[in-house]
Design goal:
Shape of chain B: globular
Mean pLDDT of chain A: 97
CATH class of chain B: Alpha Beta
CATH superfamily of the largest domain in chain A: Thiamin diphosphate (ThDP)-binding fold, Pyr/PP domains
Order of helices and strands of chain B: HHHEHHEHEEEHHEHEH
Helix content of chain B: 25-40%
Number of domains of chain B: 1
Number of strands of chain B: 7
Strand order of the largest sheet of chain B: 1-2-3-7-6
Helix content of chain A: 25-40%
CATH architecture of the largest domain in chain A: 3-Layer(aba) Sandwich
CATH class of the largest domain in chain A: Alpha Beta
Shape of chain A: globular
Strand content of chain A: 15-25%
Low-confidence stretches of chain A: none
Strand content of chain B: 5-15%
Structural class of chain A: alpha/beta
Largest sheet of chain B: 5 strands, parallel
CATH topology of the largest domain in chain A: Rossmann fold
CATH topology of chain B: Rossmann fold
Structural class of chain B: alpha/beta
Oligomer: heterodimer
CATH superfamily of chain B: Thiamin diphosphate (ThDP)-binding fold, Pyr/PP domains
Number of domains of chain A: 2
Number of strands of chain A: 14
Strand order of the largest sheet of chain A: 3-2-4-5-7-6-12
Low-confidence stretches of chain B: none
Order of helices and strands of chain A: EHEHEHEHHEHEHEEEEHEEHEHEHH
Radius of gyration of chain B: 17 Å
């Protein structure tokens, strides 16, 4: 079992903020827009250093998406910032028509995704955003797992020409990926080699998958862990190569099992490698108020749930 | 106004009527009402067709009047006139509502779902300011379309941030699909509302007069870059130029049948050659 070292808990949104700051210093085409959540999105440094390239649009997300589409039309590379809920569901038609269908080079950067935003409750905890975004033709969907990866992803999506949804979160979580690790859009990362089961995880659940794999290892079960940061386009090869070896899979995400990573993986398996799969995610429910840890535990988004799902899927595996 | 532009107006009406008739669908009413605006904008007001950076840009927010847009673009040389015959047909770049998705020259954004064009226009205007580009952004919206809330976000943003390189025209025909705007959802005193949002308001009493449209648009253009966003309330007659289509919302989204087309075309005899 590979060893993963937590370099210190950090929030993924700060990884975004740091990446955006670097982009502001190195690329004069980068512009940023925010709908009254500059501090929450960690966009302050960019705003302070590049006041002429930072657009505070007020509490008006629809207008923000339209302005971003216009800035892209004028050759700029706009990064929009607000909570995941207000980045997607609230402005779905604006994204659909003015950005996705119009193929505009807009980077939709969404913080506070999932239940881990905590105490604000279900109005702010979107668990449907991956599904909404992955259904849009031409939209790239990325959900990063820690500070370092979010920073790298922010830098990388700037080089990519096309609309991107970048999803990250609020709480401080383990920062364990190497800062030197190159971020490749559409390429999964093989974290640990194993022969008994494949665990495909995204976002905050990647660290939980590592904890689950450690416990499985102690129980004599060898788990292969794949960090899928890009949900669309999905890295089919890395998943197929793994499951053709292990013969069963658990998917894990901080998102509704309807429409998330797990469903994308299931579509792949049913069409190309029909092995059993178990799903870790929320089950067609809204979230609620609570601490991030309480919520992850209540909704089964933790290493224990992944461990149990592995035990279940192993029983279903053909002998 | 020159005879040539009058001829272009009549020919554009013919294009619109023939396009919607050919596929028995589309939106002739608002298209006919805005012919004089489009002809003036593309032939007398906008700097366009040069290299991309110095061009004025136009955004059509009320995308359903695509027939007048397509005819204008084709007759301005953006694409072959013959392509107008593909309007709303399978495998065409001339979709029911305009889009840049299939790389149709002259179209910069998709529109059709209403209320989004003004925000897009603002974004282009902001990019021009960042580039120190002195050209302007023109946006056309419907009046019924102003019932969409996003417009008011954009109106508030523009004046608060002195976006003064944008000229928005409202097609003020007082009609929408279900009836008059007054009956469906009264937008009230639009001039007062826009002034309260700190926009400079111009008015065109007869938006179907080439001379008046040119005069006011030219005045508006001269007033740009002076700290305030500009809006023109342009009164038009839906279905203008075809007597049985005028003044009614009935022709918002219905194509003429064979006999109606014949009558409508007889009122607008061929001037510059049909596509």
């Amino acid at each position: 079992m590979e060893e993963f070292i937590n370099q210190g808990d950090k929030d993924t949104r700060s990884g975004f903020g740091e990446g955006l700051t670097e982009l502001g210093r190195n690329n004069s085409d980068v512009v940023a827009l925010c709908a009254d959540l500059t501090g929450s999105l960690k966009m302050n440094t960019f705003a302070d250093e590049n006041p002429e390239r930072f657009f505070q649009v007020g509490i008006a997300e629809a207008n923000m998406m339209g302005i971003a589409a216009g800035l892209a039309t004028g050759g700029k590379i706009p990064f929009t910032g607000t909570f995941a809920n207000f980045s997607t569901g609230r402005v779905y038609d604006q994204i659909r028509q003015s950005i996705a269908y119009s193929n505009k080079n807009v980077k939709i950067c969404a913080s506070h995704a999932g239940v881990t935003l905590g105490e604000d409750g279900a109005t702010h905890q979107i668990l449907e955003d991956i599904g909404l975004m992955k259904m849009l033709p031409g939209m790239t969907v990325i959900n990063t797992c820690d500070f370092n990866q979010t920073r790298s992803a922010t830098l990388e999506i700037c080089k990519f020409d096309g609309p991107v949804y970048l999803r990250f979160g609020r709480p401080k979580v383990a920062n364990f990926t190497k800062i030197s690790e190159k971020f490749q859009i559409g390429k999964g990362v093989l974290l640990n080699k194993g022969g008994d089961v494949t665990i495909v995880a995204t976002g905050h659940l990647v660290w939980e998958a590592i904890q689950a794999a450690n416990k499985l290892y102690q129980n004599g079960i060898s788990a292969e862990i794949i960090n899928i940061h890009t949900i669309k386009p999905l890295d089919e090869d890395i998943i197929l190569n793994s499951i053709n070896k292990t013969g069963c899979l658990v998917s894990a995400e901080e998102h509704n099992i309807y429409g998330g990573l797990g469903e994308s993986v299931a579509r792949l398996l049913t069409s190309k490698a029909p092995y059993p799969q178990e799903f870790i995610g929320t089950n067609d429910t809204f979230g609620e108020s609570g601490t991030p840890l309480e919520l992850m535990n209540k909704y089964g988004l933790n290493s224990n749930s992944i461990f149990e799902a592995v035990i279940r899927v192993l029983k279903r595996k053909a002998k | 106004m020159s005879k040539n532009l009058n001829n272009l107006v009549i020919q554009t009406r013919r294009d619109i009527l023939r396009m919607v008739h050919a596929v028995n669908s589309g939106h002739p009413g608002g298209s006919l009402g805005c012919v004089e605006f489009f002809v003036t904008l593309y032939n007398k007001i906008m700097q366009h067709g040069q290299d991309d950076n110095s061009n004025d840009m136009f955004i059509l927010s009320n995308g359903h009047i695509s027939p007048v847009y397509y005819s204008t673009l084709a007759r301005a040389g953006y694409f072959d006139l013959k392509e107008l015959s593909t309007f709303r047909k399978i495998n065409s770049r001339l979709q029911g509502h305009p889009t840049n998705h299939d790389n149709l020259p002259g179209v910069n954004i998709s529109s059709g779902s209403l209320g989004q064009g003004l925000s897009v226009g603002l974004g282009i205007a902001l990019s021009k300011k960042l580039n120190s580009d002195k050209s302007l952004v023109y946006v056309l919206t419907g009046d019924g379309e102003l019932q969409e809330g996003q417009n008011w976000e954009a109106l508030m943003y523009a004046s608060a941030n002195n976006v003064d390189n944008i000229i928005v025209t409202v097609d003020y025909n007082g009609q929408q699909i279900d009836g008059s705007t007054k009956d469906v959802l009264d937008i009230g005193d639009l001039k007062l509302k826009l002034e309260a949002f700190n926009w400079k308001v111009f008015e065109i009493e007869n938006g179907n007069s080439l001379d008046e449209v040119y005069e006011i648009m030219n005045n508006a253009r001269k007033d740009s870059m002076k700290g305030k966003p500009i809006v023109i309330l342009m009164k038009t007659i839906m279905g203008n130029g075809v007597d049985f289509m005028m003044h009614s919302h009935k022709w918002h989204g219905i194509a003429p049948n064979d006999e109606e087309l014949k009558i409508a075309l007889s009122q607008n005899p061929e001037t510059l050659g049909d596509y």
